[in-house]
Amino acid sequence: MNSLQKPDLPSPAPRVSDPEVLAGEIIETLTYRIGKDAKVAKPHDWLTATILVVRDRIIDRWMQSTRKAYETNAKRVYYLSLEFLIGRLMRDAVSNLGMMDDVRAALGSLGVNLDVIAELEPDAALGNGGLGRLAACFMESMASVDIPAYGYGIRYMHGLFRQQMSDGWQVELPETWLAHGNPWEFERRESSYEIGFGGSVETVGSYDEPPRYVWKPAERVIAMAYDTPVVGWRAQRVNTLRLWTAQPIDPILLDAFNAGDHIGALRESNKAEALARVLYPADATPAGQELRLRQEYFFSSASLQDILRRHLQQYPDFKSLPDKVSIQLNDTHPAVSVAELMRLLMDVHHLDFVEAWDITWRTFSYTNHTLLPEALESWPVPLFERLLPRHMQIVYAINAHILVDARKGKAMTDNEIRSISLIDENGERRVRMGNLAFIGSHSVNGVSALHTDLMKETVFADLHKLYPARINNKTNGITPRRWLMQCNPGLTALIREAIGDAFLDDAEQLKALDAMAEDSAFQQKFAAIKRKNKEALAQLVGNRMGVRLDPSAMFDIQIKRIHEYKRQLLNIIEAVALYDQIRSHPELDWTPRVKLFAGKAAPSYHNAKLIIKLANDVARVINNDPAVRGLLKVVFIPNYNVSLAEVMVPAADLSEQISTAGMEASGTGNMKFALNGALTIGTLDGANVEMRDWVGEDNIVIFGLTADEVARKRAEGHDPRPIIEASRELSQALAAIASGVFSPDDRNRFTSLVDGLYSHDWFMVAADFDSYTKAQREVDCLWANPAGWNAKTIRNTARMGWFSSDRTIRQYAKEIWRAG
Q1: What are the helix and strand counts (H, E) for the chain?
Q2: Which of 133, 672, 749, 792 is the catalytic position?
Q3: C-beta separation of 795 from 502 below 8 A
Q4: What class does CATH assign to 73-88+123-475?
Q5: Neighbours of 215 (CB within 10 A)
Q6: Where along the sequence do coiled-coil regions lie (predicted)?
Q7: Residue 335: C-alpha distances to residues 80, 246, 475 (Å)
Q8: 239: part of which helix (H) or strand (E)?
Q9: Amino acid 249: pLDDT
Q10: How many CA atoms does the CB half-sphere of 427 hold within 13 Å?
């Protein structure tokens, strides 16, 4: 009998949340589970004790949620993602449990400040940027809208690097978020699975039976699970984030150790631990590429083995798998899961190819996050075949199955066949993971309306012709619990005072705030909260960097991964041009402005790291020039993460969403800023298009080429030189950067960046510069009218409710997963 079916086992009494009871439990936990006398306990001791007491309340609801899913035979959703940028968890969990006042009071009675100890919680270093934060928002929303779900990923020891600055250059250091343990997680040693690499494939069976294939890996590791509960709003459901860590089969080769080979004796242990050590190892080398593929297969295989085990505990076979299980692939990182599920169904559970394939493509769905060809992963065939020989056979078998049908049934041309093939034959033969994810899924979704349309026209045009009903749109969203209630409690309280509490459960009820946009008294309260948030950010910048900021200036913020298509370079060049104008025309009434940047560059991305250096060099010159009179400052804040975003987002006056049109899939930072009352300056790219439709053209500042115009310029052979020479401000700014004005120690430091704009300007920085500067001066004019500015920013907050991840998840559940 399954343990969930035992009715006579006693259950512990549910914990209560009375402050006096909480205070007693915190002291007891501090004493008996941490081993500290309250009189000598340090802030980190109080933090851990508080987390453990809160966690006990979560466990009650977690177990109820698990039992409910089992007893109702509910369809489960499994979200596979290489990243989960969850940030700090305590405030989120306490708020979603409805215990914030009680916990604050309990700690206060013990002489402990909740806000102080909450700041000590480390950010979980499990993600890079928007994709990982979206996965975290989705996990919270799945629990909030009562979808039984598991998230699956890797428990990175260091995750993405910690960013420091050395003379303005990015330096990557290990992120040690697990150095003192993680009180939120539970080790699940019973959920361990063997993962293989390399080796050979053998055929077994007699001559009169269909052949069966047995993969005999040369290397094996153990994947072991760690579970973290994910609490939904009002704790309606608690779901599970299951992260895998790697362990060797033999932790130490004792014979080698005793023979004196102490390093060699730990070889297997080190190879296993490397799988879960660092997020996105640099893949500029063959060794880096191999480790990346190993990571992707490692977590995909462990997750699928776990999913199939759970299914067989409840159902007799896999015929019902697509009806009871939905597996969402978050980008191409887990795309190898398509081949792995086929292997498990055929080689381990002995289904034939046709039945296994029918189950596989009906079970998977795939979210595409990029139109950049380099981001649609592909692997050299020799590497893939050496590391995963059985999967290479399966990829070829799937390819044959699809291409034969396409050639005969769909009458596709040779070029179209080459385009849809799982094997790229152009140059070095490579396995196309985007095509594998597309073909192996019944649903393929984009993450904004524009992005979805472009998918059909560009990267997946021929696959769309083959499967015309497969591509659909699910515009991204953000959780309002984290990105309004948690990060901006002052604004949340003001909204509750103005329109009541309905928006807490349904973000679209924020629309009632629209009626307050022109109310001068409400505007003053709204502006006062923004000012307080700006003061908090100014204090953070002062403490960390020694730079003094004036909170009365416009805070103009661009925070996101550093990439040329996101065009931090355009923003920096405009700062240089503005710097020249302020010095040249001191008689004009310039808007005081602080340009703030934050974000990390991939360690091997030279130009992105050079852009960070340029931002810091420009900041050093501008911030120390008395001729500017404090009217312009530039700040690059190191080590961008969720906790830093939670301070920067509520403090923004202007949100920079200036990517090259047609290149940003959606964006979610744009939604966070607007929800918190910032005005957006942006291109018609990603979800900016839909944001304009929702907030209104008068409440957003749009500039630049459209996606169609960008594509047309590239096709016609864009020549940026005449554009640069015709723009006095642009040409002068580029001349200053190229000549070493901002890099006197190395006058040629930024020559390559400037030469790139003159020679090809692929990301349309020069092409959009004049339009961008004109839009920025329009922003200055808007800022000069405080009442008008406040009305626009209030309307942004009021009209952003549709961009809740709850809405997005409900669409996934209804239209893709058929769950809930």
Answers
A1: 34, 22
A2: 672
A3: no
A4: alpha beta
A5: 18
A6: none
A7: 9, 20, 21
A8: strand 238-248
A9: 85
A10: 3
Sign of CA dihedral 598, 285, 179, 136: positive
CA 261 to CA 114: how far, in whole Å? 51
Contacts with 353 (C-beta within 8 Å, 6 or more apart), sequence order: 342, 346, 397, 401
Alpha-carbon gap, residue 670 to 649, rounded angstroms: 10
Q: What is the pTM of this model?
A: 0.96
> Greatest CA span in the chain, whole angstroms?
94
Write down the catalytic residue from 333, 474, 560, 567.
560
Question: Is 566 considered catalytic here?
Answer: yes
Judge contact between 309 and 206, C-beta under 8 A: no
Residue 798 per-residue DSSP state = H
Model pLDDT for residues 582-619, shown as the tens digit of each residue: 999 999 999 999 999 999 999 999 999 999 999 999 99
- The number of residues making up the chain comes to 820
Catalytically annotated residue among 162, 343, 464, 566:
566
Count CA within 13 A, CB hemisphere, residue 514: 12
Query: With 80 as the cut, is the pLDDT of residue 296 above it?
Result: yes
Residue keyed to tokens 């993600």: 127
* Beta-strand pair 423-424/364-367: unpaired
Q: How far is CA 204 from CA 341, 388, 390, 425, in A?
A: 20, 19, 14, 32
pLDDT in tens, 332-341: 999 999 999 9
| Count of Cβ atoms closer than 10 Å to residue 373 Cβ | 10
Q: What mean pLDDT do residues 512-521 have?
A: 98
| CA 391 – CA 382 distance, rounded (Å) | 12
Catalytic residue among 228, 363, 668, 773: 668
CA distances from 704 to 601, 614, 673, 728, 735 (A): 25, 23, 20, 18, 23
Mean pLDDT of the chain: 95
In angstroms, the Cα distances linking 593 to 287, 329, 554, 582, 629 are 46, 42, 5, 11, 11
What number is the average pLDDT over the span 247-268?
Answer: 66
Neighbours of 242 (CB within 10 A): 23
Beta-strand ranges (E) seen in 261-404 are 325-330, 364-367, 378-380
Catalytic entry in 158, 451, 482, 561: 561
Phi and psi torsions of 327, nearest 5°: -110, 120
Catalytic residue among 91, 155, 162, 369: 369
Q: Is the pLDDT at 3 greater than 50, yes or no?
A: no
Task: Specify whether 525 is catalytic.
Answer: no
Q: Which two tokens stand for residue 578?
A: 């503005």
| Distance between CA atoms of residues 787 and 253, nearest Å | 72
Percentage of the chain beyond pLDDT 70 is 97
CATH 3.40.50.2000 in the chain is located at 73-88+123-475, 480-783+790-803
Beta bridge mates, 483: none
- Return the amino acid letter for 493: A
- What's the CA gap between 277 and 174, in Å, rounded? 10
3-class secondary structure per residue, 467-491: CCCCEEECCCCECHHHHHHHCCHHH
| pLDDT band with cut points at 50, 70 and 90 for residue 262 | low
Catalytic status, residue 561: yes
Taking the C-alpha atoms of residue 160 and residue 254, their distance in angstroms, rounded to an integer, is 33
- With tokens 């056979």, the residue in question is 393
Indicate whether 742 pLDDT > 50.
yes
Region at 346 (left for phi over 0; alpha for psi -120 to 50; beta for the rest): alpha
User: Thinking of the domain 480-783+790-803, which architecture would CATH place it in?
Assistant: 3-Layer(aba) Sandwich (3.40)
- CB 706 within 8 Å of CB 685: no
Tell whether the model's pLDDT for residue 261 goes beyond 70. no
- Tell me what the mean pLDDT of segment 97-102 comes to: 97
Take residue 499 and report the two structure tokens written for it.
Answer: 């329109």
Per-residue pLDDT reduced to its tens digit, 422-442: 999 998 999 999 999 999 999
What is the C-alpha to C-alpha distance for residues 795 and 517, in angstroms, rounded to an integer? 6
What is the average pLDDT across 312-320?
96
Q: Which are the contacts of 157, defined by CB distance < 8 A and separation ≥ 6?
A: 178, 245, 273, 276, 277, 278
For range 538-558, the mean pLDDT: 98
